Amino acid sequence: MLRLTKKPVCLLLCALLSSAPSVIQAEAPLEKLPEIGTTAASTLTIEKELEYGDAYMRMLRASKPIINDPLLTEYVQDLGHKLVANAQDVRTPFEFFLIQNREVNAFAFFGGHVALHSGLFLHAQSESELASVMAHEIAHITQRHLARSMEDQAKKSPATMAALIGSLMLAIASPEAGIAAIQATTAASVQGQINYTRSNEMEADRIGIATLAKSGFDVQAMPTFFGRLADQYRYASTPPAMLLTHPLPESRIADTRNRAAQYPLQRVQISESYLLAQARVIARYANLDSQNALDWFERKGKKARGAEKMAVNYGKALVLMDSGKYKEAEAFLMPLLKAEPGNRFFLDSATDLDLFQQRYDHAINRLQQALKSNPANAVLRLNLAHAYLKAGRAKESLTLLSRFTYDNPEDINGWSMLAEAYAGTGRRDGELAARAEMMALRGDWEKAIQNYIQASQIVEVGSLDQARYDARIDQLRLARARFADL
To answer: Where is the active site (predicted)?
Structure first.
């Protein structure tokens, strides 16, 4: 499947959600945390949070190596929305996405956005452990911790609110300067900020555990994962960002253990989807060379059984395929596809294998059959569009992608392939327009507008296409102005 990557840039805006004190004092275990509530409407409305979240997301797409892998996106979105369906006080839509970074970290920000580092898949030993991190971040959003923190600071200084919001937007445009501005803004009451952050973290743990239980996950996964992280990095000179922005004193770990113990034990079946997603991350997004990745799967495979063995063989197939060893990859992949012909992880990789070996009709026929039972699935639709393009059937790909981008306007994969499809049919105006949408998703308003202006100049004067392009230019100019007003 098509994979898009971007140049990594260090952008630690998770500091906005929680401070990173150099010294954390011990605190007494809390038997019961007070209900802090979800106030903060006087600070930022939900509508304004959505604006900030959209702006920040566009800048993240431009500056962070977001993993635009349809399979992994589908997996984290499905897992995240399973948790959201059982969360309290949900007031915004949620979007979950992966950033290619081996460091253990996750962060949430305005507008229901939750970012997960791919390194979580290297450290989480079960789907419940990964879900525990996600549930914690979901609670940060539902409880509006960032807005409440701003409100708390604003009570101490009338100028603080404007400074905090200004720092947030500066951080979007210039991360290092923004972080410095945030630190300067909040430096007046360091101890108060630390205490407020502790209450946020423990509230997010408490609500996150409740969400885990309602969603059918193992609630013991949260203290287990947190405890293992704390032990692993107890004496590290440079702990991961997650421990800097989400401190783990013994009292917090003990509190999560106590709270998890209040729920009945439940057996959670091993998640095949999690194991396959983890294998895909190891094979393609862990910055391992092919030999090291194969060694990892070999070690994992010695004790693997059932679904774990299946995931190991899937990972080996990916590494071998990416190394150009197609026959060896096929030997691992085809038995998996035969056992589970509807599994999208296997369908996606079988498509790649066919396309690499120019077996275009074989790939297209298989995907068309799969789409009959799941016609709206994004992974299958993108795979079929990609297969059409590789087969030289750009017109059929164009039809499919036009509908896909309408249904999924924020999917960069769809716009990238649509640009390729327009190019394949000789439609330069359509190619320019599709690339403009990619630029807009990254907040590059000037280039997006210029692309649409060029597209408008190419087509027939007074045509429907020109009217459509001109209307989109007006929309983008308005979006640019609103972004500047922030």
So the answer is: 137, 205 (proton donor)
Please, are residues 242 and 102 in contact by the beta-carbon 8 Å criterion? no
> Choosing from 137, 151, 420, 437, which is the catalytic residue?
137
Which pLDDT does position 15 carry in this prediction? 37
Alpha-carbon span 127 to 51, nearest angstrom: 32
Mean pLDDT of 243-267: 79
Token pair in block for residue 477: 């100019």
CA–CA gap between residue 57 and residue 53 (Å, rounded): 6
Selecting among 69, 205, 218, 420, the annotated active-site residue is 205
Known binding residue 201? Answer is yes
Write down the pLDDT at residue 12. Answer: 33
Residue pair 172/56 in contact by the 8 Å Cβ criterion: yes
Distance between CA atoms of 310 and 485, rounded to whole angstroms? 52
Where do runs of H (alpha helix) occur along 304-411? 307-322, 326-339, 344-356, 360-373, 378-390, 394-407
Q: Is 47 an active-site residue? A: no
Please give the mean pLDDT across all residues of the chain: 84
**In the annotation, is 205 catalytic?**
yes
Exposure class string for 175-200: b at 16+ Cβ within 10 A, else e: beebbebbeebbeeeeeebbebbbeb
Place of tokens 């230019």: 473
Contact 409, 437 (CB under 8 A): yes
Q: Which of 398, 443, 444 is nearest to 421 (CA)?
A: 398
Domain locations in the chain as residue ranges: 23-261, 270-342, 427-486
